[in-house]
Amino acid sequence: PGSFKIRGIGAACEEHLRAGARRLVSSSGGNAGLAVAYAGRKLSLPVTVVVPRSTSARARQLLRVEGAEVIVDGPSWQEANVLALSLLAAGDAFIHPFDDPLLWRGHATLIDGIARCGPLPDAVVVAVGGGGLLAGVIEGLRRNRLGDIPVIARRDRRRRVAPSLAARGANRRARGDHQYRHLARIRACSRRLRRSGGEARQDAGATDDR
After folding, report:
1. Residue 17 near residue 41, CB atoms below 8 Å
2. Which of 31, 92, 205, 209 is an S-S bond match for 130, by CB 3.0 to 4.6 Å?
3. pLDDT, mean of residues 177-190
4. 83-118: burial string, b at 16+ Cβ within 10 Å, e else
């Protein structure tokens, strides 16, 4: 459900349930909402997902199959997100599709598994929509003391990166953090990808952060 998103979103939903949430509310273009709907069903919590009109009929149907209430509003995710926030009432928890440290901690378990099982990568290539997965990868590298492994981030310029992640990125550049100190290794990995026919690209159907 929702590609990698169930890791982070599932962890956030569990945390909100422990804190007493009685309903989950989210905004999404598809995949993130599907992860919320799946987690809500597994946790026996009602779920409301607000999607923009651009969300496909199939995505809306998949949300309903998981038991979510689906509200369609606005031409884009930004308008849907505003409505979702306005729906919050006592006992509700808002699940942001990408800009939430709870999600990042869940996404970081991807790196936990790599660190535990090996082998360690020369670099990590990440497709970036809103930036939730990227933040989780960086957190996972840090907490596993793998900060010397560079991160290659391929951004979809049509999408808005999470403000909190953008601010953290600016701070990293100012401090000269690990992914900016290993440009030579990044270039070498990029060359190997090109030679092998691989490409760090975003699959909108599988890695959309919304």
Report:
1. no
2. 209
3. 45
4. bbeeeeeeebbbbbbbbbebbbbbbbbbbeebbeee
Tell me the pLDDT tens digit for each residue of 29-40. 888 999 999 999
- Which pair of structure tokens corresponds to residue 36? 């919320």
Cα separation, 175 vs 136, whole angstroms: 19
Beta strands in the chain (DSSP E): 23-27, 47-51, 69-72, 92-95, 124-128, 151-155
Distance between CA 33 and CA 61 in Å, rounded?
Answer: 12
User: Quick check: 4 and 127 in contact, CB under 8 A?
Assistant: no
Taking the C-alpha atoms of residue 121 and residue 58, their distance in angstroms, rounded to an integer, is 36
Dist CA 70 CA 195 (whole Å): 45
Asked whether the predicted pLDDT for residue 105 surpasses 80, the reply is: yes
CB-CB contact of 112 with 142 (8 Å): no
Query: How distant, in Å, are the alpha carbons of 53, 94, 149 from that of 86?
Result: 18, 10, 41
- Nearest partner of 29 among 6, 65, 54, judged by Cα: 54
Q: Are 186 and 155 in contact (CB under 8 A)?
A: no
130 neighbors 156 (Cβ within 8 angstroms): no
Mean pLDDT of the chain: 81
Q: How many angstroms separate the CA atoms of 71 and 60, rounded?
A: 9
Which pLDDT band, with edges at 50, 70 and 90, does 164 fall under? low
- CA 174/CA 18 separation, integer angstroms: 37
